[in-house]
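Quick note —
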Amino acid sequence: MTASLTNRAAVVRYLLEEQPHTVWIVAAGWRGGFSLEDTICAGAIGHLLSVERDSDCSGDDESIAAVALFEQWQERLPQLLRYAHHGAAWRRWAVARIWTTAPRSIAWMLYRSKPSREC
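Predicted structure written out below.
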């Protein structure tokens, strides 16, 4: 099963209904390394499972860290994810694609409104 931030509730609902003996949540990463988006997604699923089961069963160190990261940022996910390297790569691709296909006024507006990476 493939999960994402957009379908996490459906994934948790399925897991609660099917009650598999073992669940592996694997944050796939990006280019062989850590991915903030994947870790946040894993943490969101772990958090929802804990809430729904009224349990603090958290798994290994990575699971604990992923859930803690999600819980810290759950109300501000867009703010956190705008700094993610993979998300920034997609934004650069989208801006480049828009720049070459959209009318110049729209492309310029989108280019000028890119979020700052300053903390």
